[in-house]
Amino acid sequence: MKASILFREQPLRGPGRLGDAAAGVVRDSRQMRPHQLFVAIGVDAKTNAEAAVAAGAAVVITEQPLGTSTEWLTPHARWSFARAHAASTGIDELTVPVVAVTGTKGKTTTAWAAWWALGLGAARVGTVGWHDGITEHTAQQTTPPPEELHAFLAGCARNCPGVAIEASSHAGDQHRLAGISFAGLAVTGIGRDHLDYHRTMAAYVAAKMELVHQLGVGKTLIVNADDERAATFMHAGHAVGARVLSLGFNRGEARLRQHGATWRLHVLDGDLIVPCALPGAFNAWNMAAGALLAEAAGVALPTALARLDSMPAVPGRLELCGTQPLTYVDYAHTAESLTQVCIALRQRHPGQRLVLVFGCGGDRDPGKRGPMGQAALAADVGIVTTDNPRSENPATIAAAVIAGGDKRLLVELDRRAAIRQARDLAGVDGVVVVCGKGHETEQIIGSARLQFDDRAEVRALVAKQAAKQPGMPP
Fold first, then answer.
1. What pLDDT shows up at residue 472?
2. Which of 222, 275, 298, 455 is the most exposed place for a label (fewest CB within 10 A)?
3. Residue 474: what pLDDT?
4. Where are the CATH 3.40.1390.10 domain residues in the chain?
5. What is the rounded CA–CA span in Å between residue 356 and residue 129?
6. CATH architecture of the region 90-310
7. Residue 473: its pLDDT value, please?
8. pTM exceeds 0.90, yes or no
9. Exposure string for 356-394, b = 16+ CB within 10 A, e = fewer
10. Is residue 402's pLDDT more than 80?
């Protein structure tokens, strides 16, 4: 493929002409083959570029002059690489519609709903795994690097009705999705998260905003109308010529209303039922947004919503894993998410004792810990436990959490024991929610990755309890 085509519409500066034939584009010098184009990225850009030239690189694309024999300058190497690699694999002309979901909370559930609403054979990429339309695959990252994502998309069946992608803030900042055109994008809302990486909320929001810039004219942007940053994202959507739809409970062009146990979506002149088995108003929003994304990909909205009635449970997202007491497992790992989960379960199970198990990850934003401790007071009992402490001392993390909760929280650093204690404290008629890990099956302590699955732990406790009490429901 011509290099000029791979890097078309990119503001590159270099000597003479970029060249014609190219055997592909790579950013790992260890994968370099003669006549390929090399994009130098990161702190080792110069060393890697020299290795690539020695291996036969036709051209080096770089942000800063490196002194190699042939190089072109780009304002952003990651962006240039993702776009060029998309072109090299034909992803930039993909006919299968792609929809994406970004935001602090609810990405997985919304993307899952969009995937299901797209119909049989649809594909999904996200935190709990990848699905190619036929088979489920393990995910290493919420949004994979361009090489992996492009290979996945290129492998989708020709009759695939669409792909739903979870787009993380890291992916936005690193331009992993550059070169992919979205039929629709949903922004679930913005809260505090990943500041260990982004450092500031402004940088975090900017990373999310990068995804809006990938919407073409007439494509759909769905914004949480009740979020405090809704206007910012709506303005950005209008600026790129997108069809902007605000979805909310208190405001917005599309409104969600609860009628008894049923949620209804009022959009334009329509009044449609939103199937939602999960507790919480926020999950009704997630389901509606997923259906609207499917509509953006060409599915009639009534059809998209009707399909959600048979949607399987989303692993580790307010997933009911046990009874006596009712015990849920959820991925909530921010103060806002803990609050929403507690409110949802209070509404679903009024008057029942609510016990919350949660923790904070180590080597991550320490500013989350106090607010999460405060949020935990929304439960009748909060138990602070270990949640991926990595290199930090779990007791030190717990102390910071408790400081935010006015020392009214309990501490049990053994996560298995904490879950057992929570079920004992709730009583057979109570409710327990174990937060933080959701679908995850490992606990990261130090440099070790230990097998640990909240859902499996709850089910094991229920089975043990049932063995002692014949006739107890699972």
1. 66
2. 298
3. 60
4. 3-88
5. 26
6. 3-Layer(aba) Sandwich (3.40)
7. 64
8. yes
9. bbbbbbbebbbebbbbbbbbbbbbbbbbbbbbbbeebeb
10. yes
